[in-house]
Design brief:
The chain is α+β, with helices and mostly antiparallel strands and 186 residues long. The chain has one domain: Gcn5-related N-acetyltransferase (GNAT) (Aminopeptidase), CATH 3.40.630. 33% of the residues lie in helices and 28% in strands. It has 6 helices and 7 strands; from the N terminus they run E-H-H-H-E-E-H-E-H-E-H-E-E. The chain has a 7-stranded mixed sheet, with helices on both faces. This is Acetyltransferase (GNAT) family protein. One of its GO terms (molecular function) is acyltransferase activity, transferring groups other than amino-acyl groups. Keywords: Acyltransferase, Transferase.
Length: 186
């Protein structure tokens, strides 16, 4: 079942979000142990003032387990209204890092920030279901465009997005990785 995330999903979402943080090769993933970083990110996911919170997430539930999820929200300056994650990291005595760059999304687009399928559920169409759910969420936002960034080192994902109607509109560097910014008209 695809559904809106709830506060109690914060830990499962955070465990899956670790895949994104690791793939981005963020220094914090080497500087901190996961058992120290995870509680701060779980707390942030439970609070609406942070970008990566449960209200910006949709999950795919299989037999009571979160099999995958995505974070998405209105892009550009609207997304700047969230408090930087550094606030909570400082409270936990952790190195400061940010998971969002101001050039990552553009005003007027609904931005698919991240999408992850749990390793145990890969190859079962869950990623596709979640991606289809992003289109629904984006249309509900009233914005005419859905956008995402795809790492140059992930040509399979870029090919998938192109097949779904996404077109490259620019490039951005995030955490020292080159990404194509892609948009699709809704």
């Amino acid at each position: 079942m695809i559904r809106e995330a709830r506060k109690e999903d914060a830990e499962a979402i955070t465990d899956l979000f670790k895949v994104i943080l690791t793939d981005m090769e963020l220094p914090v993933m080497q500087e901190s142990r996961w058992d120290e970083l995870k509680p701060a990110l779980v707390e942030a996911a439970k609070q609406e003032r942070f970008r990566h919170n449960y209200r910006n997430a949709v999950v795919k539930e299989v037999e009571g387990h979160v099999a995958g999820f995505f974070f998405g929200y209105k892009g550009g300056s609207v997304s700047d209204s969230y408090e930087p994650i550094e606030t909570i990291l400082k409270e936990y005595g952790l190195p400061v890092f940010e998971t969002y760059d101001e050039e990552e999304s553009i005003d007027g687009e609904w931005y698919l920030d991240s999408l992850v399928t749990h390793q145990a559920y890969r190859g079962q169409g869950i990623g596709k279901e979640l991606l289809e759910a992003t289109f629904v969420r984006a249309k509900e936002s009233g914005l005419p465009v859905i956008a995402l960034n795809v790492d140059h080192q992930n040509p399979q994902a870029k090919a998938l997005y192109a097949r779904l109607g996404f077109k490259k509109t620019g490039e951005v560097v995030l955490a020292n990785h080159d990404y194509d910014h892609m948009q699709k008209q809704l």
